[in-house]
Amino acid sequence: MIATPTFPDLAALVVDESLYIRRILRDMLTRVGIKRVLEAPDGAEALGVLSESKPDLVILDWDLAILSGEEFIRLTRTPTTSPAPSIPIIVMMGKPRRYVVDRAMSLGVNEIIAKPFSPKVLWSRLDEVINRPRPYIQVKGLLRPVARSTDALPQKVAA
Known about the structure:
Helix content is 35%, strand content 20%. It has 159 residues and is α/β, with parallel strands linked by helices. A five-stranded parallel beta sheet has the order 2-1-3-4-5, sandwiched between helices. It has a two-stranded antiparallel sheet with strand order 6-7.
C-alpha cells in the first residue's frame, strides 16, 4: 500500500461553483495535511481571496459563471496587476477537450485534472506543483511555467 503524501503548512484556495465539490476537495486536502483551505464560488471572489489571504496554491474550476477560470488565470498571471503571478494553479475540467487544455496551458496553468478524479490523482498534481516546481517565463505579458522536458516523453515517429 502506498503511503498518503503530506503537504503541511500550506494554504489552498479552492474555486468551484459547487459547494459539494468544494467540500470534497477540502476533505481530500486535509487528508494530506493542508489544513488551511480557503473557498470561493467564482473567479471574482477568488481574486479577492487571493489578494487578501495569499494562499500557496489555487485549485480552480475552468467553467465558472462569474469571472471564468480562463479570465481568473489571465488576471492572476499578469505580473503588473496580480498579487501572486507565480502561484501554482491546478485547473479542474469537466470536459477537457484538447483545444481547451491547450488554451489553459498557454495561459499558464501548472496542472490540469479531469473531473471526476480520485484523491490519488489530486495528490499527484499537488506533488508536481509543490515538490517539483517549474520556473516561470513571461510570454505575451503572462507568466507561464516552463514546459516539462520532453526527454522523458515517448516521441512520435513520422510515417
